Amino acid sequence: MMLLRHCERLFKHGHCIKRLLHKSPSRPYTIVVPSVIGGKSTDRERVMDIFSRLLLERIICINGQIDDQMSSIVIAQLLYLQSESWRDPINLYINSPGGVVTAGLAIYDTMQYIDTPISTWCIGQACSAASLLLTAGTEGMRRALPNSRIMIHQPSGSAGGSVTDIQIKAEEMLKMKRQVNDLYVRHTKRPLCEIENLLERDKYMSPIEAKEFGLIDEVIEKPPAEKSSNS
Questions:
Q1: Where is the active site (predicted)?
Q2: How many domains does the chain have?
Q3: Partner of 222 at 20 to 30 A CA spacing, among 104, 165, 168, 192?
Q4: Residue 128 among the catalytic residues
């Protein structure tokens, strides 16, 4: 009750709190996205949701399932930060089980399209399409936290309809499988035959294993120490 009253007071004073509705098999529940003080404003304090505030620091978060809606938002954020500065790096934090392959590839293509360096970070998990986004960061800037997990596998899907329709969809999925294999080869520099064999089943890796495999460049526990002004 005290939390609800506090939220009501914030709304009365013009503060913005975004609510995200999550559905579960048992019941839907609401997550309140906190608001924080944003950048400087000559008129008054700017209040924005925490993710918008992080965007000002060139931080993008991929949390949860990768679908068309998330893909649209992430692509828009990437293009916006590219337009603001193509020299300053973007930090992409990933905690995702994967999702729709085409949505993931749309984000991937945008990452490769822009000139801005992109530092990718795995926090929690980067599975399926999310692992491709993790390894698609700028070489030398792909990192994972020590207790995160990375999983790679071949694309999956289902087909229905007439026999001809099923055949068409199956051929398209095989093309996509070869395409994804080639992308992993490109970023890990592993032989194609090794990638093909490994992606036949779910392959889970610790950050150290992912580094040895070439998916990431560094396992990191703390942010890199800032250089002193005298150095």
A1: 128, 153
A2: 1
A3: 104
A4: yes
- The residue count of the chain comes to 231
- 91-140 per-position pLDDT tens digit: 999 999 999 999 999 999 999 999 999 999 999 999 999 999 999 999 99
Phi, psi (5° rounding) for residue 188? -100, -20
Residue 48 lies in a domain: no
Active-site entry in 52, 71, 119, 153: 153
One DSSP character per residue, 74-101 reads HHHHHHHHHHH-SSSPEEEEEEE--B-H
Tell me the two tokens of residue 35.
Answer: 């608001």
Hey, what's the torsion of the CAs at 217, 223, 229, 231, to 10 degrees? -40
Quick one: CA dihedral 25, 68, 64, 30, positive or negative?
negative
> Does residue 3 form part of some domain?
no
What pTM does this model have? 0.80
Residue 7 domain-assigned (yes or no): no
Backbone angles phi, psi at 162, to 5 degrees: -70, 165
**Bridge partners for 59 per DSSP:** 91
- Of the residues 96, 119, 128, 148, which is catalytic? 128
Give domain status of residue 27, yes or no.
no
